[in-house]
Design brief:
Order of helices and strands: EHEHEHHEHEHEHHEEHEHEEHEH
CATH architecture of the largest domain: 2-Layer Sandwich
Number of helices: 12
Helix content: 25-40%
Structural class: alpha/beta
CATH topology of the largest domain: Methyltransferase, Cobalt-precorrin-4 Transmethylase, Domain 2
Strand content: 15-25%
CATH superfamily of the largest domain: Tetrapyrrole methylase, C-terminal domain
Number of domains: 2
Radius of gyration: 19 Å
Distance between the termini: 50 Å
Number of strands: 12
Largest sheet: 5 strands, parallel
Strand order of the largest sheet: 3-2-4-1-5
Length: 270
Amino acid sequence: MLTFIGLGLYDERSITVEGQEALRNADRAYAEFYTSTLLGTTLEELESHHDLSIEVRDRAGVEQHPDDILEAAERETVAFLTAGDTMISTTHVDLRLRAHDRGIETRVIHGVTAQTATSALTGLQNYRFGTATTLPFPYAHGADGLPESVTRTIDENREDGVHTVVYLDIKVDNEAATNRLDRDETVEAYMTADVAAGLLAEEYPDLVGVVVARAGSPEPLVEAATMTALAERDFGDPLHLLVIPGDCHLLEADALVELAGADRSTLDVV
């Protein structure tokens, strides 16, 4: 049995009750933190809270060499853990299909996602979001300016009047990341919203963005302004993402003004 469990957004308590029960009943647990991570906890705290050992795998260990995970799931009850919702913004459907090819039963236990939390925190209606995109660090894509995948997504969504979630790049050396969970050395790179806004301001200086920082934590932050203005601000600890509002319903505009400090005159209200 292979059970995919979403851990939620922030710390060891963000998991659902159903997920916690399944994890504690597992014989073996694996996790990956290269697609996202829980910045409100450590590996040690996760293991202590759920009373089991968790083996952290790097990208190659999940996507290219998962045979030992699958072999364990043929004999035992195995949990596979990710931050957020286990099948959102990940490639883990491939692992699930590999399990099915071996005749292994699978189960998915969902967690809270950044997408749904963003809708809730900003007041933007979930069904009015278009295609999401990820903004990489400039060194990661090696081209001048913004990647075409980012500008195309933003431009097409704006033309359609829908909102855009811009996920911000995470770079993790997984061996170092595992060690980091046990010491205070900084070994990951998380793009922050001010850096992202600065990159976007080169193409869209007057475009309104909404920063969502530390969703799922006790004190999330939501703040709206133009990309130029956001690039000059400090939004504190990660994780961050940006939302680019499209055409706003009157209630959505009210929410952005009240919850994010938006200037109503800068919003497209329909």
